[in-house]
Write a structure and sequence with these properties.
Number of helices: 3
Number of strands: 16
Oligomer: single chain
Order of helices and strands: HEEEEEHEEEEEEEEHEEE
Strand content: 25-35%
Distance between the termini: 41 Å
Number of domains: 2
Helix content: 10-25%
Largest sheet: 8 strands, mixed
């Protein structure tokens, strides 16, 4: 029991490390650092390429941001107004389809320490569009010598080459990688999301951290959502490309999430069920969504963290 509690404590500390704001290195601290994040090359990120996106793929007409262009997630189509289980108005961000298998994020600890190495950026080994990438990361503890200097190691390859001990925890974090300068102003705690710096193969990468619910496990849990489109998926031009049905003169959809962050079964990774748009006016809560004419179930798993509940 004592050993498991120690491991859990380390995992929770690592989780907090994923969300912390990393300060850029100043010349005064250069002597104490390894590589300097403030002057390191920044990796180019494109979430809307055909390799990275599924529901949101850039074309000549849809106006999605270009490669490495900052994204304002507080504007359509990146934020949606939906409904909660009892009809509450909710808002959630849209980060596209993501798998249930999390990717590793490496958090460094000195021998005998229960807190991450001060000043060390966390390390990932995949970005959007690459095999193995996921917005959801499984916190992986890396033990380094007590003499280790922060940011000496900036890639998974270097971790392996140095033979550092690696321990996989069951802590999961939702940290979508985005271009530098991207913004997402909504958060359940009322404060805007800040970008966190990390390392990717020796280059600096930026990501958000959504913490409305602590997640645990070896795979990302799923929760249902019921949605309806302007054109039903079985018709020409139907499905996601046609957009969600919304109330007249409003952006309020009748997409219904089955759980909220305070619920034990909540997850921001939603299993999408599609109901007939003919039932739009009859759907105002979860029970009504479940009684609608369901056209398809489990058609995709999408990362949509809830950021507002009214």
């Amino acid at each position: 029991m004592k050993k498991s509690m120690i491991m859990l404590s380390a995992a929770l500390i690592a989780f907090s490390a994923c969300k912390k704001e990393n300060k850029e290195t100043t010349p005064a601290t250069m002597q104490e650092m390894g590589k300097d994040p403030a002057t390191a090359e920044i990796v180019s990120v494109d979430r809307f390429s055909s390799a990275a996106g599924m529901l949101m793929v850039r074309d000549a007409n849809n106006g999605l941001p270009g490669p490495n262009e900052p994204v304002n997630f507080d504007q359509a189509p990146f934020i949606t107004k939906g409904l909660g289980p009892t009809g509450q108005m909710v808002e959630y961000y849209n980060f596209d389809v993501q798998p249930t298998a999390p990717a590793p994020i490496y958090v460094l600890f000195k021998e005998g320490s229960t807190t991450p190495v001060d000043g060390q950026l966390n390390i990932i080994d995949a970005i959007p569009g690459e095999a193995g990438y996921n917005d959801f990361w499984r916190v992986t503890k890396v033990t380094v010598p007590s003499s280790y200097v922060a940011n000496t190691v900036t890639s998974h390859t270097e971790i392996v080459a140095k033979g550092y001990a690696i321990e996989t925890t069951n802590t999961l974090v939702n940290c979508p990688v985005v271009p530098k300068g991207s913004t997402a102003g909504k958060n359940l705690n009322g404060s805007p999301n800040k970008l966190t710096m990390g390392w990717y193969k020796g280059k600096v990468v930026y990501y958000f951290s959504f913490e409305e619910k602590a997640l645990m496990g070896s795979s990302v849990p799923l929760s249902p959502i019921y949605v309806t489109f302007n054109i039903n998926p079985d018709m020409t031009g139907g499905g996601p490309a046609s957009g969600f049905v919304a109330e007249m003169g409003s952006s309020q959809t009748h997409n219904v999430v089955a759980t909220l962050p305070q619920d034990a079964s909540y997850s921001p990774l939603w299993s999408v069920n599609v109901y007939d748009n003919a039932d739009f006016m009859n759907v105002g809560n979860l029970s009504q969504a479940q009684m609608a004419n369901i056209l398809a179930t489990g058609v995709a798993t999408v990362n949509c963290p809830i950021v507002s509940i009214q």
